Amino acid sequence: MLRTPLSYLKHRIDEINAETFKYCYTMIEGDALTGKLEKITYEIQLMASPAGGTIAKTTRKYYPLDGVETSEEEIKTGQERSRAMFKVLEDYLIKNPEAYA
């Protein structure tokens, strides 16, 4: 698992749609923005899988600060961190179904 020491993150919830299982939020402050990004927006859509279970589709949009360049490697590292965090959450919920029942 990829671990990164972060002192804080601040998110804004933009949309919660219980009918379509869609959740949108924006990271507006924190170490993860590395002084190079104004914000990162996330859209998470959950759908039933034909084979059973759930498919999670995630869209991220990065907003760099004016005049700042962000490398593809930095974006990939951030995506790996997000996937690792999602995996931890998924594992916890599988082991603890009463947490969301």
Can you walk through the features of this model?
The chain has 101 residues and is α+β, with helices and mostly antiparallel strands. The protein has a single domain (9-99), classed as Alpha-D-Glucose-1,6-Bisphosphate, Chain A, domain 4 (2-Layer Sandwich). Helix content is 24%, strand content 41%. It has one helix spanning 72-95; strands spanning 9-17, 22-30, 37-48, 54-64. The two termini are 27 Å apart. The model has no long low-confidence stretch (mean pLDDT 87). It comes from Thlaspi arvense (Field penny-cress). Belongs to the BetVI family. InterPro entries: Bet_v_I/MLP, Bet_v_I_allergen, Plant_def-hormone_signal, START-like_dom_sf.
Q: What would you report as the Rg, rounded to the nearest angstrom?
A: 15 Å
The run of helices and strands is EEEEH
**What proportion strand?**
35-45%
Provide the helix percentage: 10-25%
CATH architecture: 2-Layer Sandwich
Given helix and strand content, the structural type is: alpha+beta
H/I helix tally: 1
- Strand order, main sheet: write it out: 1-2-3-4
What's the overall geometry?
Answer: elongated
How would you name the CATH homologous superfamily? START domain
How many beta-strand segments?
Answer: 4
Poorly predicted segments: none
Cα end-to-end separation: 27 Å
In the residues, how many domains can be counted? 1
Average the pLDDT over all residues and give the rounded result: 87
According to CATH, what is the topology?
Answer: Alpha-D-Glucose-1,6-Bisphosphate, Chain A, domain 4
The main pleated sheet reads as: 4 strands, antiparallel
Q: Which assembly state applies to the chains in this document? A: single chain
What is the CATH first-level class name?
Alpha Beta
Pfam families: Bet_v_1
Domain Bet v I/Major latex protein: 7-96
GO cellular component, one term: cytoplasm
GO molecular function, one term: protein phosphatase inhibitor activity
